[in-house]
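Posted in: Structural Biology > Protein-Ligand Complexes

Title: Requesting predicted complex, magnesium ion in pocket

I'd be grateful if someone could produce the 3D structure tokens for the following input. Sequence and ligand are given below.
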Amino acid sequence: MIKVRALNKAFGGLRAVRDLSFEALPRCVTSIIGPNGAGKSTAFNLIAGTLQPDSGTVELDGRDITGRAPFALARLGVARSFQITNLFFGLSTFENVRLACQSLERRSSYLVRLDRLARPQACARAILAEFGLQERANELVGNLSHGDQRRVEIAVCMALRPRLLMLDEPTQGMSPSETAEFDALIKSLTGRATILLIEHDVDLVMSLSDHVIVMHQGEKLFEGTPDRVRASPLVREAYLGVDHAAV
Ligand SMILES: Nc1ncnc2c1ncn2[C@@H]1O[C@H](COP(=O)(O)OP(=O)(O)OP(=O)(O)O)[C@@H](O)[C@H]1O
Ligand SMILES: [Mg+2]
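-- Reply #1 --
Done. Output follows.
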């Protein structure tokens, strides 16, 4: 589904992403892990069009999408969430999701009063029900718990009916019970979208992923199944710590 080839990005003298190549297979969960500053979010930004690569290519289903703007990629079926929660905090949960649904409408509908557009309303209600957010529908997103905000972000992404869902540390700041719920949520989405996930929670990565890419200092250090990553001395040393008991 996604093919990244020899991607490079430098910030001044710092090579944040170096010659990064990998593939993410359709309807699989591919996780990117690595220590802080490894270049994971930069790689995401290069794929999702938030940053332009210095060199290299990104293909979506065989189509070159290198450097395309995020809104253009959204129309091609790429939805992503950010490491820092990125929602309209002054709007309600319903309004946030409805905005995403509205973006699928024809442009001429942008001039119609939103409460008269039946489809985005119905779409938003269905998504809220699916994500168990009905009771939060009228609350301002800024007043929700962190876990619920993260859930709304994924609901907003899924409202775009993406083929590729990219999530940057979605469980950051979540409680253990919220993380467990998130695990179930992602598993429920796997049949509907290809998922690219940046995640620090090793247990979650092992539970969710079909394929894991390990980044270190901008480069791909290792890739393989969760079991192979768990067993790799290289990965243990560079990222997980040789004495990481859980791995
Ligand atoms: N816009 C930017 N300008 C300058 N340097 C940047 C910029 N974005 C990232 N960097 C640097 O590039 C390197 C890679 O950062 P990146 O955010 O991709 O890491 P990461 O793997 O996502 O880390 P974390 O796990 O902490 O989120 C870091 O050294 C970071 O300071
Ligand atoms: Mg990051």
